[in-house]
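Structure ticket #2291
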Amino acid sequence: MAYTDAGTEIRRLFIDSGPMWRVSGRNSLWTYEVPGTSLTCRKGTEFCVDHVIVAHGWPPVNSSNRNLRIRIRTAVGSPVQSSDFLVQLDEGSPTFSSLASELSTKLSALHASSFTVTWNSATFQFRVQQSGTQAYGFRILSDEELQSMPFNGALVTNPMSANKILGILSASASSVGSDSDGFTNLADYGTAILLRVHSLRLVCQQLGGATLSERGATGTVCKCALSEGFGELEVQRENGSLEGLWLPVEGTIKRLLFEVQDEYGNELVLPESCPISFTIASRKPEEV
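Resolution: structure written out below.
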């Protein structure tokens, strides 16, 4: 259980990242201060984040999912000669047709060959075709390939890729039409989805020292799924038992640094009009 300086038990702490309630920072990376007192968490105290409310303020294409990595073959014959290029989509709320136009322009600017990207509204799939001078083949690296295949000489550990949005498949997929070296001139990719952010991590190093994320980092105190909700507030409330969510905490709490992150540890920047609010519950062992 947490206690104020006057000895009052505090069972729930309500936190909001908005400018009226934070000490400093912004909606997705801010310093919170317990108002009017500090909180002492005695030995054996546990806490959990059991209620999160956040407006879905992330556009479908944002800093966490805008990268496309393409390998373009530069000569015929063996050994394979190629160059790697990073293409970044414009952030915002595009349509599939506007993405096709944007990619046609940006891919064609990389090389002497021309690229045409078309959108099939019946199948929800993109087609990428290379033609013209030096059209020796290309390979757009999928998320699976990036896990083991160096790009520009190094493995990419934080791709922030647009592959889910564009439905990018690995070179081995039959519709990609790759040759024995993994290159193609005409690729039909999988189902495209203009995903918004589907989940977030609430990170606080002072509270989350007993957690380990997918990346091996500490500090995550809550992982929330987000649903669409027609642009209204997205609400994540844990239903049923909270037993697996309780974490140990001990000592005095006054100021805490919080950050909203994606699964790769990138800050999920929230617009100023979209703060995040949540509840921290506390208990002592004898209440179990």
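Closing remark: Residues 229-235, 237-241 have pLDDT under 50 and may be disordered.
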